[in-house]
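Lab notebook, bench 4. The sequencing result for the construct came back, and we need a structural model before the next group meeting so we can plan mutations. Quick request posted to the team channel:

Model the 3D structure of this chain.
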Amino acid sequence: MSQLPLRQDVATARSALDEPDAPGSSDEFHRFMRTWATGITVVTSRRQGRSVGCTVTAFTSVSLQPALLLVCLADGSRTLATLRARGVFAVNVLAGDQTALAGHFATAPGDRFATVPHHLVDGVPLLDAALATAVCRVERAWPVADHTLVLGRPGHYGALRKVPPLIRFNGTSGPLRSSREG
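Done. Here's the predicted structure in token form:
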């Protein structure tokens, strides 16, 4: 593959790539990421009778054969500590009408499950009203900056509700609307 010639002013210009921790670069990155629409999940785990969970938007499939998925959790997260110790976690994909539930698992102190209907599968809490659920075994985990990437192998899937998913775009959350809905 041939390379395109660079203009001299482009080749010598300094950029955020030269100084990734420069003032303002995190604000610019935040603005950039707000343009990416993403689904919202709640990642849960349980150990020694204590359920934990947190809202996660950094979630994606990795492969179909074998089935693998990836979640990204903050290093100080109780959920990360529990799923690392237990080796099992669940991903609960939220439905479009569950904005309050996403907020609850993002900010509620104490026992986040006290008022949330849920049940256990393979000892891991699944949210009763989730759009879809998957219970996963931890395959690998990689620390990256202030988060950890967790690769999981799903072994159990919950039923899919027939409603739109909850998405986040430009700092707000709401149900996915198709172009046919207007």
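Helices lie at 8-12, 25-33, 78-86, 99-107.
Will bring this to the meeting.
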